[in-house]
Amino acid sequence: MADLQRAGVRWIFCDHLHRNAEAQDGQTTVITTGAAGKPLGSGKSGIRLIWINGRNVSHRYAEFGNLPHDARQISAAAK
User: Fold this and answer.
1) How far, CA to CA in Å, does 46 sit from each of 2, 20, 23, 60, 68?
2) Which range scores top for mean pLDDT: 9-23, 35-49, 62-76?
């Protein structure tokens, strides 16, 4: 993690934990997206939508069955 932080990495997006999780270490945020197939716990299957605008990053998890028809409409409301 120290090497990534020295390199200026601010966001790390991961998968295959079978649940959603978020952690912060200094200026670096690690986001894990749950399984698209069989999530563990109370989570539901879905995808993570990510918007990158210059140095700004926002994201939102969208469950299958509740996916937006146009992701641009919800980008302003993303985390």
Assistant:
1) 31, 10, 20, 10, 12
2) 9-23
**Fold assignment, 2-67:** Purple Acid Phosphatase; chain A, domain 2 (3.60.21)
**For 40-63, b where at least 16 C-beta lie within 10 A, e where not — what string?**
eeebeebebbbeeeeeebebbbee
Residue 2, classed as helix, strand or coil, is: helix
Assigned token pair, 35? 């399984």
CA distance 44 to 76: 23
What is the model's pLDDT at position 37? 79
Rounded Cα distance, 66 and 73, in Å: 14
Q: Model's pTM, two decimal places?
A: 0.72
**Whole-number Å distance between alpha carbons of 73 and 75:** 6
